[in-house]
Amino acid sequence: MKALRTLGAVGLAAGMVATASAVPAPDATGITVVRTSGYYDTSYGGGEFTLKGSPWANPAHYASATLVVGGFQTFCLERNEFLSGQPFDGWLNTAAVAGGLAGGSPDPISIGTAWLYKQFAEGNLAGYDYTPGPGREASARALQEAIWMLEDELAVNYANPYISLVIGKFGGLANAKADYTSVSANYTVRAINLYSADGTKRQDMLVYLPDGGMTLILMGGGLLGLALIRRKE
């Protein structure tokens, strides 16, 4: 079982979230998630997903092939949480809050998941078909299932090309499933913990943040500064 450790980035403070139950003000509101034709396998419920309305996913860091109809392409972390009740509030984290079917609650992202999503977001994932259509749909399903395998949501299938890829990268499945915050390499991938307006926990999605979320922190600092100036006036 993965270590129960979670690091939250919360507005200006970007401080640590001690427990999943201590829910601060959201980092973003009005988030929506859809699936775009040609980018996912219609025969099942996994990614790719198109996430819109967040302040994250700098287009300078995402490949153009992973920026679709005003949003960025992402994948889900849990198999037993869903996307009803939109729009969502979102929090940046390094873990899936409820943890899904296995892996702990909260369940930190694995190093393999972080690395695969980084490669995907940058448009460099080996073997991934980035051309919309049947090839991309098949790639999306294989990557989604590999992420679920690395997050203990699905039994490992060693024939999955992305499982083979992370085993080769990290020297074994156990290494690829290790918490990515507990090893030296840090691919600055985060979970976005989504909640509906009534506070119901929803799916956790992935986002690539090469700056570690500093854009959001600076935005928060600017807003706080304006608030202080107005208070003094």
Topology (SSEs and partners):
Elements: E1 28-34, E2 49-52, E3 67-68, E4 71-74, E5 88-93, E6 95-96, E7 107-108, H1 111-121, H2 134-150, H3 161-170, H4 173-176, E8 189-196, E9 201-208, H5 214-232
Antiparallel strand pairs: 1-2, 1-5, 2-4, 3-4, 5-8, 6-7, 8-9
Signal peptide: 1-22
Transmembrane segments: 205-229
Organism: Limisphaera ngatamarikiensis
Give structural attributes:
single chain, 233 residues, alpha+beta, 9 strands
What does the model show?
It is globular and about 40 Å long. A seven-stranded antiparallel β-sheet has the order 3-4-2-1-5-8-9. A two-stranded antiparallel sheet has the order 6-7. It has one domain (28-211). Helix content is 26%, strand content 18%. It is built from five helices and nine strands. It has 233 residues and is of the alpha+beta class. The model is unreliable at 1-21 and 215-233 (pLDDT under 50). It starts with 27 loop residues before the first strand and ends with a helix. Strand 3 and strand 4 (71-74) form a beta hairpin. The chain crosses the membrane at residues 205-229. Residues 1-22 form the signal peptide. Keywords: Membrane, Signal, Transmembrane, Transmembrane helix.
